[in-house]
Amino acid sequence: MTDPILVATDLTKQVNLKGSQLQILNKVSLEVQKSSSVAIIGPSGAGKTTLLSLLAGLDVPSTGSVTMGGIDITALTEEQRTQFRGKQVGFVFQNFYLLENLTALENVMLPLDLHAIPKAKSKAREILAEVGLQDRLDHYPRQLSGGEQQRVAIARGFVTEPAILFADEPTGNLDQSTGEKIIDSIFQLNKDLQTTLVVITHEEGLAQRCDRVLRLSKGGLRLAP
């Protein structure tokens, strides 16, 4: 077996709440193999989004470490982590986070432009076609349905061909039928691009599509039954 692309070791996260320490995560460890898919499930308030933020380098743990592609990202400065994420990490969120004043094409081009990746327009066009939005390139978010907006967000997440894509409740704001189509799009791109996929979800159907399902409960992580 090859070395894992993502390793979390004894992650603990504490926050100061009204003068006392609230422990959200307690010595969480996991490994994720390259090109695999992992779902992290658990009840509301279990710390799923906090864990994702630590794994992706959006936040730093109180103690413990995260290694991605052999790099200890917890040892990097905030600026270094930002640069690292731009090259290695993609995101899809529940709330889409599209820029309202940009078209679908421009939203997908944005991460390519920010990191000076060449052929931004052609790459954005190609991946939007892959999610079935070749006829919506010049539409603004307000002119798109919720499902179409999420497909734009998925295209934006995958367009840089990241080593790892983190998805936080990607179907949370969608009806079941639309959500299933979004799931299909995510896993098709995951297969085509060989991107490692880490999904936070409460949707059992989405979780079961992943290679492995982990359950987060009371700040700890274990293999789901």
For this entry, give a set of tags.
alpha/beta; 10 strands; six-stranded mixed beta sheet; Rossmann fold; globular; 225 residues; single chain; four-stranded antiparallel beta sheet
Folded structure, characterized:
With 225 residues, the protein is an alpha/beta fold. The chain has a single domain (6-223), classed as Rossmann fold. The protein is 34% helix and 28% strand. The protein contains seven helices and ten strands. Strand 1 and strand 2 (20-32) form a beta hairpin. The longest helix has 18 residues, at 176-193. It is globular and about 50 Å long. The protein starts with 5 loop residues before the first strand and ends with a strand.
Overall SS class: alpha/beta
Total strands: the figure is: 10
CATH architecture: 3-Layer(aba) Sandwich
Distance between the termini: 24 Å
Share in β-strands: 25-35%
Number of domains: 1
Main beta sheet strand tally, sense and closure: 6 strands, mixed
* Outline type: globular
**What is the CATH superfamily classification?**
P-loop containing nucleotide triphosphate hydrolases
Low-confidence stretches: none
**What is the residue-averaged pLDDT?**
90
What is the CATH topology?
Rossmann fold
CATH class: Alpha Beta
Rg measurement, Å: 17 Å
Order of helices and strands: EEEHEEHEHHHEHEHEE
Helix content: 25-40%
* Quaternary structure of the protein: single chain
Biggest sheet, spatial arrangement of strands: 6-7-8-3-9-10
Number of continuous helical runs: 7
